[in-house]
Amino acid sequence: MPICFPTCQTARWVRRLPEAEKNALLLRVLDDDPKLGTELRIKFAQQTRTNSLPDPAAKPENRRTVGELLSAAEEKRSKAAEKAAAEERRIEKERAAAREKYLEDLAQKADKIWLKVEDLISTKQPARYDEAVKLLVDLRDLAARKGKIDGFQSRYRELCQKHEKKPSLLRKMEKAGL
What we know:
The protein is built from eight helices and no strands. It is mostly helical. It is rod-shaped, with a radius of gyration of 39 Å.
């Protein structure tokens, strides 16, 4: 004859059962274990009588100290910083490779680029000066990579002398580190 239990107390007892134990009990239900009902009633009666209801939250292995929480948070921040740094290195490597390819392509048409710089400067428009300065920086970087910086500097000095009466252009070139 089954023993009847107060519903609230039974529900509280079931909620406090450890997860692993609940899973094992459910498997036994699915296997149609005939002894399960009796065992559960006996266990319930013993634990409620001795007031030893299991409380997984009270287990020390389920609780972490403040130090452990802080350490875990620091480890998480450290991993995030490492991931961000790795991503930044990857992006920088891609940029460098793209820049290298761009300069290699530019090498094929360097003389045309010098002519384009002259055309841009001759417009006497400040926005065009910006574009010309950008191309001059590219030509300088290309010359440095090819070991021909002297040739660039010579041509650059001629350009500066030719346009010495354009102070805004000269300021832009100086600001760009040319």
